[in-house]
Write a structure and sequence with these properties.
- The complex is a heterodimer.
- Chain A is of the alpha/beta class.
- Chain A folds into three domains: 5-57, Electron transport complex subunit B, putative Fe-S cluster (3-methyladenine DNA Glycosylase II, Chain A, domain 3), CATH 1.10.15; 64-313, Dihydropteroate synthase-like (TIM Barrel, Alpha-Beta Barrel); 326-446, Rossmann fold (3-Layer(aba) Sandwich), CATH 3.40.50.11600.
- In chain A, 41% of the residues lie in helices and 16% in strands.
- Chain A has helices at residues 5-11, 25-33, 47-57, 104-116, 140-153, 165-174, 190-200, 211-224, 238-254, 268-271, 275-287, 300-313, 346-359, 375-380, 386-395, 416-423, 439-446; strands at residues 64-66, 73-75, 93-99, 119-121, 124-126, 130-134, 157-161, 181-185, 204-207, 229-232, 265-266, 292-295, 326-330, 339-343, 363-368, 406-409, 428-431.
- In chain A, the strands form four sheets. Chain A has an eight-stranded parallel sheet with strand order 10-9-8-7-6-3-12-11. A five-stranded mixed sheet of chain A has the order 13-15-14-16-17, with helices on both faces. Chain A has a two-stranded antiparallel sheet with strand order 1-2.
- In chain A, strand 7 (157-161), helix 6 and strand 8 form a beta-alpha-beta unit.
- In chain A, helix 6 (165-174) packs parallel to helix 7.
- The longest helix of chain A has 17 residues, at 238-254.
- The termini of chain A are far apart.
- The mean pLDDT of chain A is 94.
- By secondary structure, chain B is α/β, with parallel strands linked by helices.
- Chain B has one domain (18-297): TIM Barrel, CATH 3.20.20.
- Chain B is 40% helix and 15% strand.
- In chain B, strand 5 (126-129), helix 4 and strand 6 form a beta-alpha-beta unit.
- In chain B, helix 2 runs parallel beside helix 3 (108-121), helix 4 runs parallel beside helix 5 (163-173) and helix 10 crosses helix 11 (288-299).
- The longest helix of chain B is centred in the last third of the chain and has 18 residues, at 261-278.
- The two termini of chain B are 29 Å apart.
- The model of chain B has no long low-confidence stretch (mean pLDDT 97).
- The chains are: A alpha/beta, B alpha/beta.
- At the A-B interface, helix 8, helix 9, helix 11 and helix 12 of A face helix 7, helix 9, helix 10 and helix 11 of B.
- The structure holds cobalamin (B12) and iron/sulfur cluster.
- Iron/sulfur cluster is lined by residues 12-13, 15-20, 22, 25, 28, 42, 44 of chain A.
């Protein structure tokens, strides 16, 4: 929110009639400023004041939705330049480029592959968000066939890329109820595009040769009532891309420059032939401010690292991801099953529990609350040392759960073994492997009931 | 509304550190702006990209990363030469893993002899890395500093518990050091202040410790970015040293990197580009293909 409570207060009726549900106009103003109340709650606002306040309170980067329903992509509304200041908010959409020049069976295979791509990490689904359908054949029917295929056989959000405005708009009409991103809207075609964009109520991907050019385009669109806009400043490589993305984000956040207050789209797929370079450019744009990133590859070894990087960069820096402290029973363990211990850093829990499941050996996994800090950092700060673990053992009555006396600890925790031998004298302390991923091998070779 | 490019200027420079001696010496740092911000400041020195050499045969290395070094892993000198001559490394990082007290526990003397042989065999700058064990490292790096006197090595890691010894000996024998404080802006600054009481700041490189993609990358990213900002925006001269990121090994440990060569290279390279964007000035890499890829990517013309 760009406005302070005191500034909002100046525009309110100041009658303190309480109808908004707050004791005073001032209280209502403060709540509005922090996003806790809605303007509609005050019935006495003059319409022109309402419009004015709405504009002033809008987020500096507009929220844009592409697609509908569960698979819709929401971007924009970012509030910071640097992740450590607060958090990056809406993950950029990853789009896969499909050209209508590719032959039917290739297209079908590609769509099938994209549908099947599915990764999970720390309990979160990592996936591709959009299909970017590109008109390269010069043949309108071909493009429309491709659009129909994507529209009918998938539920991905869509981007339509086409330099012929008539073809672009008629293709958009075919899938308008899916709110595709229509691209590129340029200074040459904007007048033709506006009526149709308004009619179809679908977002516009604006392309200019420079940021200046975009500014005049978005201003025109805004005046015409097209609100959902995505920006492409025409960057040709990584360096230009970083420059343009930085300028756009800064102009919106630091200067409150509305004509650039929209999310962006970038095209590593057109910048680099080499797919490794394409991936690095995509990674750079995930880090530096893109709202959508269009890439050409469907190979999972190429996409997976990018999706993980996006996930990492968009986690909230203010609190580590945690799971609940408790003794997790994996695959119905009994009193002869192994006992392992780790931290409540969500990453640790998912790695270790996943590995135990993979080993297919029932086990108890003790998860100690370390405030979401992993093994070594938690050991150093005393949250995962001998004493802390001995207390955990008492609290959860581990001794009564099993007949044996063997505890498996992370292999990296070198000094923890000595500490535990002192604190838990009845127990044999066993180093597990250094890597969580080696636990299956370790358990299946080493554990006998 | 009229658009004007929102340029930002910072009135200070990151310090420039010189590594190595002679023609192949390398400078890192020196910038007065954020990474890749050629449009509003100067970035005189491209990031340094180092390849690793171990003084013992690598254990548990993924097949993909062992492959390029298969013929040289039993000899650090040939390994180092291959990195320079074949893979075009402009900096090397020799890890004295043999000295690990929990492992082979080789003597400081033995390790220093190896370091000297490697340093003599190459003409590019050399980073010599201990095992992170404070007491042992200070003895090991002392021997290395003496034996390689005047070579301007980069010795590390200097930690809270041993920075005095390491910095002192580095000063006497003309070397630079890596000051390491884990993942904490304040600890980084404290260590720098303590060091700068007697050690020249332009011979310090910072290490905030690094994690791999998928294994805490975001923490390293944000710490590096934060340190860089404190140096540039807040003009804190105790936070203006060039920053090192040491993650090649972290990446190749992961099961994801081991899965396929392509995915492994990308795991390492994506981690690398992310840290470069945060502001790292020196990367320690493991796979030569990653080195090549990142180098091409950052040296492309506008
Ligand atoms: C990211 C990081 C942080 C993050 C923590 C993120 C988090 N949520 O955990 C932050 C910034 C918070 C942090 C803080 C600190 N850190 Co820190 N940090 C790191 C770093 C760079 C990566 C650690 C990491 O996340 N690894 C990934 C996770 C998944 O690894 P893991 O927990 O070990 O789990 C693996 C295995 O152990 C295994 N595993 C896990 N559980 C189990 C269980 C069993 C039974 C088995 C068999 C295996 C197993 O599976 C996992 C995958 O293989 C390391 C350096 C490095 N590269 O390792 C330093 C490091 C761990 N930190 C260190 C330190 C000293 C600290 C601090 C104490 C410093 C300070 N500022 O005061 C603080 C303490 C914080 C606190 N409040 O308690 C030191 C620890 C030194 C030591 N004892 O060896 C390290 C090693 C850096 C160093 N070289 O000095 N840190
Ligand atoms: S409803 Fe409007 S006028 Fe009445 S107290 Fe609330 S803000 Fe004030």
């Amino acid at each position: 929110m760009a406005l302070k409570g005191a500034e909002i207060m100046k525009r309110l009726p100041k009658t303190n009639c309480k109808e908004c549900g707050y004791a005073t106009c001032f209280a209502f103003a403060m709540k509005l400023a922090t996003g806790g109340a809605k303007l509609e709650d005050c019935p006495y606002l003059a319409p022109e004041v309402k419009v004015e306040l709405e504009a002033a309170m809008a987020p500096p980067i507009k929220r844009v939705t592409i697609g509908v329903g569960e698979t819709a992509l929401v971007i924009g509304e970012e509030e910071v330049m640097f992740r450590h200041e607060k958090t990056f908010f809406h993950e950029p959409g990853i789009a896969i480029l499909i050209s209508d020049k590719e032959n039917d069976s290739d297209i079908e295979k590609k769509i099938k592959d994209i549908k099947e791509l599915h990764f999970e990490r720390i309990g979160k689904e990592l996936k591709i968000n959009l299909l970017a359908l590109s008109f390269e054949s010069g043949d309108k029917t071909k493009f429309e066939t491709l659009v129909k295929k994507a529209y009918e056989t998938t539920d991905f959000a869509l981007i339509l890329i086409c330099n012929n405005i008539d073809v672009l708009l008629s293709a958009a009409a075919l899938c308008a109820d899916r709110k595709p991103l229509v691209y590129p809207i340029t200074k040459e075609n904007i007048d033709l595009a506006i009526p149709k964009l308004k009619e179809l109520r679908t977002p516009a991907g604006v392309k200019g040769e420079s940021i200046e050019e975009i500014v005049s385009l978005t201003s025109t669109l805004k005046e015409a009532g097209v609100e959902e806009i995505v920006l492409d400043p025409g960057s040709k490589n990584l360096k230009e891309g970083i420059r343009d993305q930085t300028f756009i984000r800064r102009a919106a956040l630091k200067k409150g420059f509305r004509p650039l207050g929209y999310p962006t789209i970038t095209f590593p797929c057109f910048m680099y032939q080499d797919k490794f370079k394409e991936a690095l450019a995509a990674a750079a744009f995930i880090t530096k401010y893109a709202g959508i990133i269009v890439i050409s590859q469907v190979d999972k070894h190429f996409l997976f690292p990018l999706l993980v990087q996006r996930f990492n960069i968009y986690t909230d820096p203010r609190r580590p991801m945690t799971v609940e402290e408790k003794v997790y029973e994996i695959s119905k363990p009994n009193e002869y099953s192994p006992i392992l211990i780790s931290t409540n850093y969500a990453l640790d829990f998912f790695i270790v529990s996943g590995a135990i499941e993979e080993a297919n050996i029932p086990a108890y996994l003790c998860i100690k609350d370390t405030g979401g800090i992993g093994v070594m950092a938690a050991w150093t700060s005393g949250k995962f040392n001998g004493e802390a673990i001995a207390d955990f053992f008492k609290k959860y009555g581990i001794e009564n759960k099993v007949k044996h006396r063997k505890l498996i600890i992370p292999g990296v925790a070198k000094k923890l073994k000595d500490e535990l031998e002192e604190e838990l004298p009845d127990w044999e302390i066993i180093f597990g492997p250094l890597e969580g991923s080696d636990i299956p091998k370790f358990l299946s070779e080493g554990w006998k009931e | 509304m009229k658009y004007e490019a929102p340029l930002e200027k910072y009135p200070v420079n990151i310090r420039e550190a010189v590594l190595g001696k002679g023609e192949k010496a390398i400078k890192i740092g020196g910038e007065n702006t954020f990474p890749f911000h050629f449009f509003e400041g100067s970035l005189p020195d491209p990031p340094g990209l180092a390849l690793e050499v171990l003084d013992i045969q690598p254990e548990n290395w993924s097949h993909w990363v062992l492959e390029p070094f298969q013929d040289v892993v039993s000899d650090p000198v040939s390994w180092a030469k291959k990195c320079v001559d074949v893979f075009g490394a402009e900096i090397l990082c020799l890890r004295l893993l043999s000295t690990d007290p929990m492992g082979k526990d080789a003597s400081p003397k033995q390790a220093a002899v190896i370091a000297k042989k490697v340093a003599d065999a190459i003409d590019v700058p050399l980073i010599v890395w201990g095992t992170g064990t404070e007491e042992k490292d200070s003895r090991v790096l002392t021997e290395v500093a003496r034996l390689c006197s005047g070579k301007n090595l980069l010795l590390g890691p200097a930690l809270k518990g041993n920075y005095e010894e390491i910095a002192q000996i580095a000063l006497e024998h003309g070397h630079a050091i890596v000051a390491q404080a884990s993942m904490d802006v304040n600890l980084t600054k404290e260590l720098n202040i303590a060091l700068c009481k007697f050690f020249p700041p332009e011979k310090i490189v910072l290490d905030t410790t690094s994690s791999a993609l998928g294994y805490g990358l975001e923490y390293t990213f944000s710490i590096i970015e934060n340190v860089k900002q404190i140096g540039l925006i807040n003009r804190d001269n105790m936070m203006q040293m060039p920053i090192l990121a040491d993650f090649g090994g972290e990446c190749w440990r992961s099961k994801e990197a081991k899965e396929s060569k392509e995915q492994g290279i990308l795991w390492e390279a994506i981690t690398g580009i992310t840290f470069l964007l945060a502001g790292a000035n020196l990367l320690i890499l493991r796979h030569p293909d990653t080195l090549k890829l990142i180098k091409e990517m950052i040296s492309e013309k506008k």
